[in-house]
Predict the 3D structure of the following.
Amino acid sequence: MLRSTISSLVPRATSVARHMSNAAKLTTVEINDVTGIATLTMNRPPVNGLNLELLTDLNNSIQEIEDNKSRGLILTSSNPTIFSAGLDILEMYKPDKERLKAFWTTLQDVWLALYGSAVPTAAAINGHSPAGGCLLATSCEYRVMLPKFTIGLNETKLGIVAPKWFMSSFLSVLPRRVAERALNQGRMFTTDEALRNGLIDEVANSKEEALAKCAEFIGSFSKVNPLARSLTKQQLRAAELSELENERAQDLEKFIFFVNQPAVQKGLGIYLENLKKKSKN
Ligand SMILES: CCCCCC/C=C\CC(=O)SCCNC(=O)CCNC(=O)[C@H](O)C(C)(C)COP(=O)(O)OP(=O)(O)OC[C@H]1O[C@@H](n2cnc3c(N)ncnc32)[C@H](O)[C@@H]1OP(=O)(O)O
């Protein structure tokens, strides 16, 4: 029955879609006047690397969507093959001290806002989604992914360690045993593997279909009291949220210390070099 309502929920009807605000250049927010659902699109070429500016725009857009009482939030990307390449490694490699602080603090803000969002959230994962990209997707309540892409927390492959709150999002979706092994291996799941393991909820064959499935998920709450729903969600997520809220300063300190270790800098440098070599071939 829900399936038959898909077309009415698709947030693509440009004639009725209202651009709420595109003041921020690296994200756009479009609200569908029929469904009331906001589509938040990341748009930072070439790979939606999460740098300070994109994170700031994401944070502002999430806030705007909450303030405007949208019925739900769908996170997606304007890039046809990449949802997000994760944190922009250039923010961590040979970093500027003050900018590094602002970068990490804003990432914390984005996670707290998205994981703790009062509105129903879904990710239309229309491309690769490593590391920070996977963090964003797993912070949402529902994930729909296109075929033949990859998703996962690959930090150990870069010689870095995913913070506890990255793991919290991952663990809210995957069984502990699967999450533990995948984190230790730095495993990237293909779309099929992600579906089999529960890392994503559905597969869609196009971005439009992914957006429609996300909208259908958000529409499934239409007969539920919104306050009861959001308080239930927030209660379920409260422990992980307060853990970071209470330890933000220590988390920042740890990050800054770790990033500045010569071995970490060396590892990031080699990883970046390999990425650049690969992109030239
Ligand atoms: C250190 C203390 C603890 C910190 C904890 C931090 C936790 C999380 C960390 C992260 O999120 S780290 C980022 C992890 N991300 C990745 O490993 C992804 C790397 N990228 C890729 O695998 C591929 O680029 C892609 C996303 C699959 C896309 O492939 P495609 O072939 O389409 O594009 P490329 O040619 O590879 O790339 C184009 C261009 O972008 C640059 N680039 C790619 N990813 C990043 C990135 N994450 N940061 C910075 N730059 C990136 C790549 O080097 C190319 O640059 P140019 O050669 O064109 O200059």
Remarks:
- The longest helix spans residues 226-246.
- The longest strand covers residues 27-32.
